[in-house]
Each structure stands twice: as C-alpha cells, then as structure tokens.
Design brief:
This protein is of the alpha+beta class and 474 residues long. It is built from 14 helices and 21 strands. The strands form three sheets. Strands 1, 8, 9, 10, 11, 12, 20 and 21 form an eight-stranded antiparallel beta sheet that branches. Strands 13, 14, 15, 16, 17, 18 and 19 form a seven-stranded antiparallel beta sheet that branches. Strands 2, 3, 4, 5, 6 and 7 form a six-stranded antiparallel beta sheet that branches. A hairpin with a 7-residue loop joins β5 (124-143) and β6. α2 (33-46) packs across α7 (200-219), α4 (58-64) crosses α6 (174-198) and α10 runs antiparallel to α12. It starts with a helix and ends with a strand.
C-alpha cells in the first residue's frame, strides 16, 4: 500500500483535478403542460367526474336560483310546473388546457365541459334536449409553508356565465320551444354555481392525487450496486407552463447508511429553463460524480504485466533501459505494476460533451516478490465519458484514456523525466484501468421514471454542469 505522505504529495503536486461548483438544486424534475394535463385527466377519470355531471340537480338548482324575488318566483313556478323530469343525459370532460398565468408562480387550468340535458313535459311526448357547454377554470399555485417545503395548491375553481353556451337541439312547437328557452335562461345563473359546488371538490381531489403521484415519481429511490440514491423535495417552482420539482439527494451504502448529501446552494450554474419537452430530469454535476464514485470506488490494481500484456511489458522494459540499463535487466517474468486510485473518475459536463479526470499513483516493481518499487509516478488522466439510455437503464462508458501530466514521486533507479514513459503508460492504462472501470458501470442504473410518465424511450444530453434526461418523442 502507498503511504499517506505519498497521497498528500500527489494531491499537492497535481492539484485538484476539478474545481467543482455547488450548482443550485442537485436535481430538477421539470413537468410540462402535456404531463400535467395527462395526469389530471386520468385523476378525474379515476374519481368518475363525469358521473358527478350526470347527477347535477338541475331542477333544484333552478328553484334555488330565484333569489327570493316574488315576480321571478311566480314566473319560475309557472315554468317549472310543466316539467315532469329533467336531468343530464350525457356528459364529457374535453381536453384540458394548462397555460401560464399573468401572475408569478401560478398556472391556469381550463377544463371544458360538454353536456346534454333532457326534460319531459306533458305538452309533448318527445324528450326536449339542449346542449350545455361551459368551462371550469382553476389556478395552480406554489404556496409556502412554515413547517416544511412549499406545496402545490389548487384554488379559485369556478365556472363563469361568460363561458356558458346553451342551445336547443330539437325544434318543436312554439310553446315547447318557448318553455325550453325559459328553462335555459333559468340555468344560466344556476349552472356555474352548481358546477362549482358539485364538480370543483372532485377536481380538488383529483389534483391532490396528481400532486401525490408527482412527488412519488420524483422521490422514487434509484438502486445502485452497491447502495441507492434517494431524493426528497427541496422546493417547488412554476415557470412558463411547467411545474419544477427541485430535489435534494443522498447516497446510501449497502447498509442504508448515508455516505453523501447533496443539497441546495446559493449560486446556480445549472440551466433549468423549460425547453418545450414533455418532461426533463436534470442531474447536477456533483450528483453525477457521487453516483459514479459509488459505482467505481477507489481501489488498487495489481497487474503481472508479462502475463497480461507481454508486448507492452517488453516496451516498458525498453523504456526503462534508456533510463537505467541495469534496472531494466532486473525485470523478471513476474514484473508487476500497481495502480492505485483514490477516488472514482471525476466527471466534467460541458455543452460539447462529458469527460472524466482521475489522479492515480502507478508503481513499477521488478518482480512480484519485491516490496520496494523501481519508481512511483503521480499521473493525471483524462478520458471520454459517454452517457446514454438503454431502455430503462442509465448507462455510462469510458473511452480513449490519455495522460495529461506525470510527476515522478520517488525513484530507486535514478531521477528521470517520466514523460519518456507516457506512450507505454497510456497503453497500460487503456488495457487495465479502463476495462476495469467500464466493467463496474456496465450493468447501468435502473431509472423507471420515463416509463412511469408514459414514454417508451428517452435520451441523455449533456449540458453545462448537468445531465438532462428527456423523452425521445421530443
């Protein structure tokens, strides 16, 4: 094993590979209007909202809508005595529309209703039918809480007379048509209040279910090998027509103990502005690094070079011969290389792609029985990092490792410029370190969010300081 002083010296000589910023929320689940409309529509179906419309008490609502004015009461009684039966015969909730509000942190939800009502009258045997179209408007707001994070709230659910349209579907006798028109006139002030009293509570329940579903999706744990990544709600925001769930995260080991916390910070460099996608999940760079370091922990590799890559072993011997011929002759069949990493690959995310940097210590021993190396090198490596999705799996692959800097730490053969070994060491790392780390990330990380939101495929893109997951259909 390497002594602590070597690690300290390496860090001092190579410096920090990355200067990582704390980039606002560690993760952001951005839900666009398409998702909000789909989930709220399904929640309304689950609560059988159309059944509520079928049960609207049309006759009693008109009776209560007289306002107690005697003239109107008399007129109403003379009209209503000709009605034997009256009810909604068909009802549909049309396509919901979610729009930005003129106020900050607020969305407008428009819910169009299409109903047909029928009435029986002794004046005619035929059912008298008329169509009723109206629109419910509700507001989604971010409301702060003194006891915890803010939450979404549905408020101001109402239907206005201005959105109400009534039309007679069948033209009958003058007397019946006049009766129907008077009924519709009585419904104009009564129907909005009726819808508010009977349907808005169901819309509230449906919204609460939708919000609960969003929280479950956002905070669902992600299994790692080993351990897990878990999320909690940090804050909420509304931007344009989108709901943004800002999340904090923590990494757990195989015993469910917290190994790393990721919280908010003052400065944000992660772009979270909605881009028109149905949804997006953004993962901050330091959170990505935390996951990668869990999958690829620090370790020490021991390679018997001549058994694994004999051609490169001979090339290394030739390189050492240029430094010290006597030392090169001591390299036996069991010549050994030790590679130690003291952290996982550190990911850097930029618009032009992702790279990984890693500082290692590499030591060369003449045989596997020697306890003292010929030399120890501090090496700063750099390689490509490719993030992609395979079905529900978050995948990572490393390619094309290169050496940025080499520093001679200790040498028992003589002082020398380690750059003369750069080509050979690069090949050793490509043949040993790179496959070892790719083997650890090959299984990927399960991510069920995409399918849970109703999409089959997704794609990962690299932004400055963040990874972004969006559905392929976008």
């Amino acid at each position: 094993m390497f002594g602590p002083w070597i690690v300290t010296l390496l860090c001092g000589l190579l410096g920090a590979t990355l200067v990582q910023a704390n980039l606002g929320p560690p993760a952001v689940l951005n839900l666009g209007p398409e998702i909000i409309e789909k989930y709220l529509t399904q929640a309304l179906k689950n609560h059988d909202a159309t059944a509520i419309l079928h049960e609207l008490p049309l006759l009693s609502a008109m009776q209560e809508g007289s306002g107690g004015i005697p003239i109107l009461d008399g007129l109403m009684r003379s009209i209503l005595r000709y009605i034997i039966w009256m009810r909604v015969t068909s009802a549909n909730i049309l396509q919901l529309v979610v729009q930005p509000s003129t106020y900050d942190q607020e969305l407008v939800v428009r819910i169009p209703l299409d109903m047909v009502a029928g009435l029986n009258t002794p004046l005619i045997k035929t059912l008298v039918q008329f169509q009723m179209n109206t629109e419910i408007q509700a507001l989604i707001r971010v409301e702060k809480s003194k006891s915890g994070p803010a939450r979404l709230n549905l408020s101001d659910c109402s239907s206005s007379e201005n959105t109400l349209r009534l039309s007679l579907l069948n033209k009958l006798s003058f007397m019946v048509n006049s009766l129907a028109n008077n009924v519709m006139n009585l419904l104009v002030p009564a129907l909005p209040q009726m819808v508010k009293n009977h349907l808005c509570p169901v819309i509230q329940q449906a919204f609460d279910d939708m919000y609960s579903d969003f929280l479950k999706l956002a905070t669902a744990p992600v299994g790692l090998s080993p351990g897990a990544l878990t999320f909690d709600l940090l804050s909420l925001a509304i931007q344009d027509s989108n709901i943004m769930l800002n999340l904090k995260a923590k990494l757990l080991d195989s015993q469910a103990r917290v190994t790393n916390w990721f919280n908010s910070s003052v400065t944000s460099l992660m772009e979270t502005t909605p881009d028109g996608a149905p949804f997006s999940l953004l993962l901050r760079q330091d959170l990505v690094n935390g996951v990668v370091n869990t999958l690829v922990p620090k370790e020490e590799l021991v390679i018997l070079l001549r058994f694994v890559i004999p051609e490169i072993a001979r090339q290394l011997q030739e390189d050492i011969k240029e430094i010290n011929a006597e030392a090169a002759n001591k390299l036996g069949p069991t010549q050994m290389v030790k590679i130690a990493t003291y952290s996982g690959p550190q990911i850097v995310l930029n618009e032009d792609g992702a790279t990984a940097a890693q500082s290692i210590i590499l030591e060369v021993f003449p045989t596997n029985t020697d306890v003292r190396p010929f030399f120890s090198l501090g090496i700063e490596t750099n390689y490509e990092a490719q993030f992609y999705m395979e079905g529900d799996w978050f995948m990572l692959n490393f390619n094309n490792i290169s050496i940025d800097r080499i520093k001679l730490m200790i040498s028992d053969i003589k002082l020398f410029n380690p750059d003369i070994l750069k080509s050979t060491l690069t090949k050793i790392l490509n043949y040993t370190l790179l496959p070892n780390e790719n083997g650890k990330v090959r299984t990927g990380v399960p991510l069920s969010l995409v399918r849970a939101l109703g999409y089959e495929k997704s794609v990962l893109s690299v932004n400055k300081g963040a990874l972004k997951l969006t559905p392929v259909s976008f």
